[in-house]
Amino acid sequence: MSSTYERVEAAPRAFPAPTRSPGWRRRESELLARVMSAHADVATALDQELAVPGVDRDRPGRSADIVSALTWCCIERLRLSSVATAADTARLCRLVADLQQLSSELYEHELSLRTRRLADCSAGLARLRSLPTSGDLVDQVCQELVTRCGFGRVVLSRVDDGLWKPWKGHFSDGAEMDGWFTPWIDQGIPLDELMLEASLVRERRPAIVYDTEAPTTEIHRPIIVEAGHSKSYVAAPIVPGGNVVGFLHADYHPSARRVDDVDRDVLWAFAEGFGKIYERTVLLERLRAQRDHVRETLAAAERMMDELCDSGIDLAKHPDAGSIVARSAVSALSGGSAVLDELTAREREVLELMVVGATNGAIAEQLVITEGTVKSHVKHILRKLGAVNRSQAIARYLGIAQVETDD
Question: What is the pTM of this model?
Answer without folding.
Answer: 0.61
